[in-house]
C-alpha cells in the first residue's frame, strides 16, 4: 500500500512518544493507519469511497477524486441520508459534497478534509411554497431562512424539518461519534427553535446545540453543514488526533499513560488493539 508522506505532530500523546515523534504510516510505525493526524494536517489509509448515489443521497459532484473517508464516516452519511428519506419519504435527496482524497492530504478548496473524518453536506431545501426540492448548490442562507438561487431569479428555502432530522441522526447515531457540525449561528438558531417547537427531547437538543458551531477561522458555513467525526478510542491508538473537544456523551479515549511496556510494544508492532472494548455512543444521549 502506498502512503503519502507528510510531517505530523507527535501522535497519540505520551505513549507513542516513547518511540519518538512518528510521522506517517511507515514500515517503522505499522500500528498507524486509518485517520492519521489532525483534520488540517494528516493522511488517510484504508479509506472507502462514498457511492455517487444511494437511498436518499446523491453526490454534488458525480465524478471527482475526493469522496473517500474512513468507513465510519461513509456509513454515517449513508445511514443519515437513508434515515431522513425513510422518515420523510418522497423528498429531494441529501446532496453530499467533498469528503477526502483516497490517501488523505490537502485537497482543493479545503483546509481540513485531510484525514477522512470530514464531509460537507448541502442543506435540504424547499421551494418558497414549501415543496421539497433538490439543493441548488452552495447558496447562502440568511437569518430569514431564504437564499437566492444561483441565477438570482428565485429563492429557495431552508427545509427545517429535513435538516433537523439530519442533525438529529448525526447526533444520535450510536456509531457516528460526531464531533462537530459546523454551520452558521443563524441556521443553528433556526434548527434549535424548530426542534424546541417540535418538543424534541432535551437530551437530543443539548448535544445538537453543543456540536453546531459557526467556526471563527473560516467561512460562516451558511451554505452547507461541515460534519466532522471524533476519533474513537481504537482510532486514537492508531494515530487519529481529535483537534477539538471530547464530548461527555462519547466513549472515553484510552488513558495511554497507564499502558504497560508490553502493550506499548504491541501497538508499535501493529497488533490489533486489545486495550478497550469498541467505543459506542448511547443512542439519544
Ligand atoms: Zn468542509
Entry summary:
The chain has 285 residues and is α+β, with helices and mostly antiparallel strands.
What does this structure look like?
The chain has a four-stranded mixed β-sheet. Strands 10-9-12-11 form a four-stranded antiparallel β-sheet. The model is unreliable at 1-23 and 273-285 (pLDDT under 50). 45% of the residues are buried. The chain starts with 12 loop residues before the first helix and ends in a 16-residue tail after the last helix. Helix content is 26%, strand content 16%. The longest helix is centred in the N-terminal third of the chain and has 17 residues, at 71-87. Strand 1 (35-38) and strand 2 form a beta hairpin. The protein has a domain at 48-229: Muramoyl-pentapeptide Carboxypeptidase, domain 2. It has helices spanning 13-17, 71-87, 160-172, 185-198, 202-211, 233-237, 261-269, and strands spanning 35-38, 41-44, 48-49, 53-54, 57-59, 68-69, 94-96, 118-121, 125-126, 132-133, 146-148, 155-158, 178-182, 212-213, 225-229. Helix 3 crosses helix 5. The protein has 285 residues and is an alpha+beta fold. Bound molecules: zinc ion. Residues 110, 113, 118, 120, 226 line the site of zinc ion (ZN).
Amino acid at each position: 500500500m502506498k502512503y503519502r508522506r507528510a510531517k505530523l505532530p507527535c501522535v497519540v500523546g505520551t505513549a507513542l512518544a516513547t518511540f519518538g515523534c512518528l510521522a506517517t504510516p511507515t514500515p517503522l510505525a505499522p500500528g498507524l493507519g486509518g485517520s492519521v493526524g489532525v483534520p488540517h494536517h494528516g493522511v488517510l489509509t484504508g479509506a472507502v469511497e462514498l457511492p455517487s448515489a444511494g437511498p436518499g443521497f446523491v453526490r454534488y459532484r458525480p465524478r471527482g477524486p475526493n469522496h473517500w473517508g474512513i468507513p465510519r464516516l461513509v456509513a454515517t452519511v449513508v445511514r443519515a441520508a437513508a434515515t431522513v428519506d425513510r422518515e420523510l419519504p418522497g423528498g429531494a435527496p441529501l446532496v453530499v459534497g467533498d469528503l477526502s482524497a483516497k490517501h488523505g492530504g490537502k485537497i482543493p478548496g479545503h483546509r481540513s478534509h485531510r484525514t477522512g473524518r470530514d464531509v460537507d453536506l448541502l442543506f435540504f431545501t424547499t421551494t418558497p411554497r414549501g415543496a421539497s426540492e433538490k439543493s441548488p448548490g452552495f447558496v447562502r442562507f440568511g437569518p430569514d431562512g431564504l437564499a437566492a438561487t444561483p441565477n438570482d431569479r428565485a429563492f429557495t428555502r431552508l427545509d427545517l424539518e429535513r435538516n433537523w432530522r439530519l442533525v438529529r441522526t448525526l447526533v444520535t447515531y450510536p456509531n457516528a461519534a460526531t464531533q462537530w457540525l459546523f454551520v452558521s449561528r443563524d441556521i443553528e438558531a433556526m434548527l434549535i427553535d424548530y426542534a424546541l417547537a417540535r418538543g424534541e427531547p432535551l437530551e437530543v437538543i443539548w448535544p445538537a446545540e453543543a456540536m453546531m458551531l459557526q467556526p471563527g477561522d473560516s467561512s460562516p458555513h451558511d451554505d452547507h453543514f461541515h460534519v466532522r467525526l471524533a476519533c474513537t478510542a481504537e482510532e486514537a491508538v492508531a494515530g487519529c488526533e481529535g483537534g477539538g473537544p471530547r464530548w461527555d456523551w462519547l466513549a472515553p479515549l484510552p488513558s495511554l499513560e497507564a499502558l504497560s511496556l508490553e502493550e506499548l510494544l504491541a501497538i508499535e508492532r501493529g497488533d490489533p488493539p486489545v486495550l478497550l472494548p469498541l467505543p459506542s455512543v448511547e443512542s439519544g444521549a
